[in-house]
TrEMBL record:
It comes from Kingdonia uniflora. Its main location: secreted. Keywords: Cell wall, Cell wall biogenesis/degradation, Secreted, Signal. Residues 47-151 form the Expansin-like EG45 domain. This is Expansin.
Amino acid sequence: MSIVSLLFFSLFFFNLHCSLCDKYGGWQSAHATFYGGGDAYGTMGMWGARGYGNLYSSGYGIDTAALSTTLFNNGVSCGSCYELRCDNVHQWCLPGTITITATNLCPPNPSLPNDNDGWCNSPNQHFDLSQPVFEHIAQYKAGIVPISFRR
């Protein structure tokens, strides 16, 4: 194989790898809210979609999230893991990241505007977390925070 062919071949695979990293490994923007109280174990959010049953006794604990319609993608994203971090531009963000499993749909409410309680409406990218998990990346009083996430 000539050096030119080898260089072309290497550049092709590098570009393919980089485009896949952007799609599946790069950070994207979204928002996060929380449901339930400080004791998420007894909330209705513990029951997942797609046959997960009781998420706590199945081993998922509270490290799960309901995804907005856009992210849920008709259930295709169910079972996917996401790493989330609060965007530090927000005054109530805490350092660090969390890893959650997508187990449910955050129901849209088209009667509400997308930027005022209609967080799960399409085309928003949104994660609805249990309160204890939310409080690993942001303070309770924030209620909703801008986040970055990657799959």
